Amino acid sequence: MAQTPPPASAMQPVLRLIRMPNAGLAPKIAAVVLLVIVLATILAPWIAPHDPLAMDPLNRLKGPMPGHPLGTDNYGRDILSRVLIGGRLSLMIGIATAIVSVLLGLIIGMIAGFFRTADAIIMRMMDALMAIPSILLAIALVALNGPSVGSVIAAITIPEIPRVVRLVRAVVLTAREEPYVEAAIALGSSMPKILIQHLVPNTLAPLIVQGTYILASAILTEAILSFLGAGVSTETPTWGNIMAEGRMFFRIKPELILYPGLMLSLCILSINLLGDTARDMLDPRLKKRAG
Amino acid sequence: MLGYILRRILAVIPVMLLVAVFVFLLLRLTPGDPAAIIAGDMATPAQLERIREAMGLNQPLHIQFITWIGQLLRGDLGTSLISNTPVSSMIASRMGPTLAIALLTIIMSVLLAVPMGVLAAWKHRSAADYAVMAFSVLGFSIPVFVIGYIFILIFSLKLGWFPVQGYTPISAGLLPFLKNAFLPALTLTTIYVALIARMTRANMLEVLGEDYIRTARAKGAPERTVLFRHALKNAAVPILTVIGTGFALLIGGVVVTETVFNIPGIGRLTVDAILARDYPVIQAMILLTSFLYVLVNLLIDISYSLFDPRIRY
Amino acid sequence: MQFKSRNFDDAAIAIETDNLTVALPDTAGQPQVLKGIDVTIRQGETVCLVGESGSGKSVTSLAIMGLLPDALKVTDGKINLQGENLLPLSQAQMRELRAARVAMIFQEPMTALNPVLRVGDQITEVMELHTKLPPSERRKRAIAIMEQVHLPDVERIFRSYPHQLSGGQRQRIMIAMALVLEPVLLIADEPTTALDVTTQKQILSLIGELQANHGTAVLFITHDMGVVAEIADTVYVMKHGEIVESGPVEQILRHPQKDYTRALLASVPSLSPRPARPDVSDIVLQVDRLNKIYGGGGILKKLPRAHAAKDVSFTLTRGRTLGIVGESGSGKSTVARCIMRLIDPTSGQIRLDGSDIASLSRNQLRPHRKKLQVVFQDPMRSLNPRWTIARSLTEGPLNYGTSKSEAMAEAARLLNVVGLPEDALHRYPHMFSGGQRQRIAIARAVMMRPDVLVADEAVSALDVSVQAQVLDLLDQLQQELGIAIVFITHDLRVAAQICDDVIVMQRGAVVEHGPAGDVLGSPVHPYTRALIDAAPGRDWDFQNFRKMSEAPNARPA
Description:
Chain C: Its main location: membrane. Chain C: It is a peripheral membrane protein. By secondary structure, chain A is mainly alpha-helical. Helix content of chain A is about 70%, strand content about 0%. Chain A has helices at about 10-20, 25-40, 45, 80-115, 115-130, 135-145, 150-175, 180-185, 190-225, 240-245, 255-280, 285-290. In chain A, about 50% of the residues are buried. The chains are: A mainly alpha, B mainly alpha, C alpha/beta.
């Protein structure tokens, strides 16, 4: 029991995660892979061999060759450069979605968990939002608002919010039954104070985990939106719209889908693995079983 | 029991109503003139007026909403702005392929995922457990269309076992149907299995730590009995739940898969409608799929009582 | 007190452990959890394994069943069942033997039965696994054993699910399941700890009755010396994985040889009430016709109404302790939570220092909160695990405008008073034991200088030795500060030691109310009498190693 003490301060889960004690090999590899991908996309403008938008009509749909390690696409653009640059926007959309949906979900979930009157209405609205298939909702939102980065982020964020709200609300409802919260009421602490000091820290660990899953699923959703023709306009490459453009040429040059697909999958795989590791480390129930 | 079902059905009504409100507002609250969005940039004022008239956009919002709901309740889903055919008949003609593939997916997924999850939980921290977990995290990490293209590449183009794209209805025979439907269903199964296997494993792990499992072992029950008679039935409710909530994932997956495999289902219909801004079709499709989702989850809710006697009343 | 004094020397040995050693092989240093345990149980004998939490008594029983958790391994010794060593047996061989020759019942009847299977099927399953009886015969035998454990209306219960039965009924089902194949040995791991005392008494006598009929050997694991006195033939006292002392029950209770055993016995609170303190006229809390009704609402389904507190009235004066005793569901915690205004009473008055707080709003309540503090049952959950002790202790005073430095100084002083070092201030709750945390929770309440302290089962989760220390602390604080205490408990022994006045509650209503000496010494209401009658070991004066009636100035019970 005493081997793995519960998190002592609000920041402790974060510290534990960074140190990753007793994590297996897989999450460590995942962390390295993710780091490499992130660095590569950040440094893309400097390390990419070509301008990702520069066309070369003489060298269309070529295989690997000197100067084009992964070959070229249907306009003769360098695939490697496009994949590297494309990751920037994909990752950015994912991170923005994760942050916005976690923050909004936290606020709405807190309100639902603490104010009984608001709870029923909020939760029915969340049920309704969850009932609308998220991909359909997202493509509809993008189709109506235009293919800008902002509308893509909004379109992916909105369907993610209900899950965060449910999570936060569940944590708050459990925590407010805890004797230490009742003791705080007895000690005369005001409701906002209890909410912020006692309850919010409880949501931190599950939100870190949920945030990583949202990050992964947002990158995935961006790709699907682009693939269906409802993503960021093709002037800016993203992993998703590179693959969407490659659809037409899939039979002759599957690499147009496979290379960005591989990058994207590796990236999401790493994030998901890190998310699982975080969950196992932060889940008090699993800890109890281990101790 | 009947009272329970009735209460569940009543509880669904406000959710459906809210879905309708959301879908309705989706178009109306979009910045800009909905008519202009629908008609595109090149529309003449006369065209815009015609669209506004057709959709009743000149009337106050609540009147529009009530009119629309009234039409829905009479079974009138509207008329496509593009093809001028009733939306209901468009849906009816495209429903078959989607339902067939979805059903095939669910059957294959449950048959695969539940045993995988049980095995992983039983042999916790063994090679089998890690294999199942690895598969499930992979299933979550590869975009469904990439999986689809990889399958086409391997099974159709390289091995030639299946046709590359297209669809044959069941009415043309089971084998021709399966030849076309198997790869799309397998593609969807990959992600669905990932979800269900993971949930099964997590819940079985939890149940296997319960006191009554210790009791079953203290009775001298063999592991098979412990797992399937004592544990799985207790883990059934959350597994069913995830099959239900995963239905949303399935709908999203169907949309993508139909595009990859060029299947004339309602998924493709919806994407085409959205891209063409055929708003009556969009409204009807989102509403219909949401309704389907709610219905599936309602049925699952009701089926809980078959597995857990505590939920009966 | 009539101890069991049967002689088993001639009976066959049912089970015997020889130098049984269990360790955690994968933990650094491979600590031993059991260090060479020798226990012998003969046919028809009841052996009690008694000890505090962490003593290794449950590990012993699981080792015998071959059901140790994966982390634990038997590293040495033998377990001989009727002369046959069980340790070399394969898993399949052990399975054959479980329930058939060695059966076990567990502490939590609420969770030990499978919630999704009918209880009848859970009993017949034992026969399905171990015999070739046809289904009709299995059912007949299940019904027969259910009758033997005195379940009412067996045909109906046979078809019931666990959640439709009471805790006592579920434990009877567990016993029926354990005994249906007439095993040689029955292991009972705290089988009555989760039950009310009146139910406990019935279950204990049932086990005794079935043992006499079937000649079963019983290994009974408990932390409760009262239960030991009631049922044991032979007692083994355990501590930290070792047997401290063993012998016939009367010898252990009358002439304990080891200091640990003496200390353990001495910390069992006596059932004879301590003398009441002088009454004063300074009323701090007056509860008048308090009612709490749950349910009755519901839009789609009429929720069942539960009258959890019916016209509860009492008065508490400065520096005195009022005990509210009763079994689960009696409404005692509802009353406590109403007084604390953690829930809203349906009707009635709660006058705290003269002003009625029963219907005040959250904001109106704040000035009164100070005077009314609480200590909860579960020491693991009553402190915020993320906060330092200092932050927890100063939370209240800071709310009422005390300066930070002043609050910190007071926190340091009070930690000393409750017997903790000052450096505890900057540590976190998980670094303390349950008893220490409960002291911290008490200090947190006392920081507010309350007039009234509500203690809701505040010592129930603690081992007896720790319990005694915490009760002493409460007594000391009360004398120094003149706090009035409302002490909610199910344990009559604890109530007798700390209360001046006692209220006995049953199904939401007060059935008896008066000075502790009268209520516990000469109860009037039949329910109070039944409660006292059911208290195990009530005739034995554990602290003085003698019968109650042997005390110099004993008054007839």
